[in-house]
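My main concern about presentation is that the manuscript never shows what a single data entry looks like. An entry of this sort, consisting of the sequence and the corresponding backbone structure tokens, reads as follows:
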Amino acid sequence: MVRPSRIAALLLAAALAGGVTAAAAGDLILTGAKPDRLFVIDAASRSVKSEFRIAGANGQVGTIVPSPDGRIAYVLVNRMESIVGIDLADGHAMFRADLSTPGERVKALFAFTVTPDGKELIAYEVPTKLLPSEYQVEEPRFAVFKTSGGLKAKAVRQYPAQRRLHMLLMRPSGKSFYALGFDLYEYDVQTGKLLGTRGIQKWQLPAHSQPDLLAFWPVTEPSGVFTSPLYSEAQQGAAAAPMTALMSLDVASGALDYRDFEPLSALIFSTVLSPDRKTAYGVYSTLTKVDVEGRKLAARVPLDHTFYSVNVASDGQEIYIGGAMCDVGFYDAASLEKRAMLKLPGCADQSVASLRVIRTH
């Protein structure tokens, strides 16, 4: 009689031999691609589980925000003028908010989020009035929609917003959300009251110049921390040297941290934090591993081409990379060794679409 432990070992060995990793079991990867695609990828089998077409995408698929229960993907489409909620079980549209009207063009500019109870969606709107002889720039605003609003959802409330925002991140309490731009703002969900402002470009980091960042991939899974590379000049004696730092924001506690980790030798487009919060990973033309606690570069490997977005398996054992072109990569988190590369059907271009991870069990 074969013992259960032996059976488990044989099953694991068979899975690894077939290219399936126990580390990825239960993870679903969401990504979008031009002109109208939403893909659901089974991380364990490295295969496309579902491919959906989004009506009225108008050639563009961008930010993806999963619902808290993982059943719906809210996707920014139509040149940032529409947000559509797609049921991941069958691909049907459950929600649609078309932000523009005949007299007003409205862009969401990458930034929207969903409340923890899944009942409301908050979008950052940049409106322009379309007059007969001119365009009139209006003040930016937040618009709040009920996710039960159907396919012609209208805002149930609006309130003023700062300019130059590009990302919204909901706090787990559901009472407030963060808006990232040149600085970090926190707003009350119900009233729109500005609760606080902290520096990003106006950071108070001694011996550093004003920093710059490019952050519109709203990834906080699985750690609950948003991270982004940040670039500045650091004074070193009489000279100043370009420096790369890791910015991290714990969306639950509100802790905001900056840590230099290397001279500016490689541009990292986006980063993600491991579940244990000890390691960060970043992509562009290389895959980079950062020792967060040690504040140093841990490893770097070249990639086949440029990738824009990165995420990590729920157990931290594998790195997922996507964006830019039509493939999604699977890399070992410890060694950065490439395990697999999945070509999306039709070689659909992901461009700047988010790469999100849903844990099914």
Notes: Helices lie at 4-17.
